[in-house]
Write a structure and sequence with these properties.
199 residues, DUF416 family protein, globular, DUF416, mainly alpha
């Protein structure tokens, strides 16, 4: 991930924001489904804030006060102490990613964008370990299993694709942002293959 940090350091503020938004969008179904199944939080409001981020990036739609939205996003973070089930983890990761995306927009800090990508990758790794790996595996075999798993391969390919699109674009256009959003939406499937049917 150190190579990624270097790549992010070469990005302009709008590119960092778009990078963070793409990962947040891709993780969002993990929260949406959790919210629906456990009647937790306000998935609709979180969706509106995510939409506000895309509108901000493409220069369209109503302006949103992201500083005010930080509190709203924070209020939708499930506590792992309250929910003793695996689904709370990717749901929390998704909301934390959106929170970091808002911070990235407000402060333009490379660390926030890096943290979003890291959260997504960790989320995928944990999902594979908890749900798909053989508990008897040695640490080395587990690392290999996670790295070679289709979901992790897709995660890495997605990151490369997003970076490539951003690095080849000097200035954001509504069309370019719309394309990035479509890519991140991934037909409603999240980074761990979860879909909220209503997507």
């Amino acid at each position: 991930m150190q190579a990624l940090k270097k790549q992010l350091e070469s990005l302009k503020p709008w590119q960092l924001n778009a990078f963070s938004a793409a990962f947040s969008e891709r993780m969002l179904p993990n929260f949406t489904l959790f919210s629906k199944l456990l009647k937790f939080g306000d998935a609709q409001k979180v969706r509106q804030i995510m939409d506000g981020v895309w509108n901000h990036l493409s220069g369209t739609g109503a302006k949103m006060n992201f500083e005010v939205q930080l509190d709203v996003v924070e209020g939708n973070m499930p506590s792992l102490d309250d929910f003793d089930l695996y689904g709370a983890m990717p749901a929390l990761d998704a909301v934390v990613a959106l929170y970091s995306t808002l911070l990235c927009i407000l402060e333009g800090d490379v660390d926030d964008a890096f943290s979003v990508a890291n959260l997504s990758k960790e989320s995928v790794a944990t999902f594979i370990e908890v749900n798909l790996a053989d508990p008897q595996m040695s640490d080395v075999d587990l690392m290999r299993f996670i790295a070679n798993h289709e979901l992790m391969q897709e995660e890495d390919a997605f990151r490369e694709d997003v970076l490539e699109r951003l690095l080849s674009t000097e200035h954001p256009t509504p069309a370019m942002i719309a394309d990035l959003r479509r890519l991140a939406h991934n037909e409603g499937f999240s980074n761990i293959g979860i879909s909220d049917d209503e997507e």
